[in-house]
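User: Teach me something about this protein's shape.
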Amino acid sequence: MSFIKMALEQVSEAQLVPEGKYPCVVLKAEEKISKAAKEAGIDTPNMLSIMLGVESPDHPNANPLFLNLMYPDDLADHEDDKDKWERINLMRMRDLKRFLVAFGVSFEADGFEADDVQGATGDLTTRLRAIARGSD
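Assistant: First, the predicted structure itself:
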């Protein structure tokens, strides 16, 4: 193997930003299949996975922020709990619409173009919470 030359001594760990409102840019947006959907045998994307960069001069080494926005489920898959899944789907669509509006991504009455999300900019309010690793 060859030696890979790069200035690694200059690299520092990214820092969590304190709770607050920050200008952000979508660094990466891709459609994915959630772990639960894969386990259920679903092979079409059911969420939009987003990596945001914090664009604040006060936090030049800010850790990226990650967001998964779930798509509505097909109600035909939930005949036993249709009312519950109608409410869940409405909540998911609200979350998606709020994100699209906040980041200035155009949409139509019947949806949006996922490719338009990458590079979008908007303000995001952050808050910190502990995450239980190994659970969905």
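Now, about its shape. The mean pLDDT is 91. Strands lie at 20-32, 47-54, 65-70, 107-108, 111-112, 121-126. If you'd like, I can walk through any region in more detail.
User: That's plenty for now, thanks!
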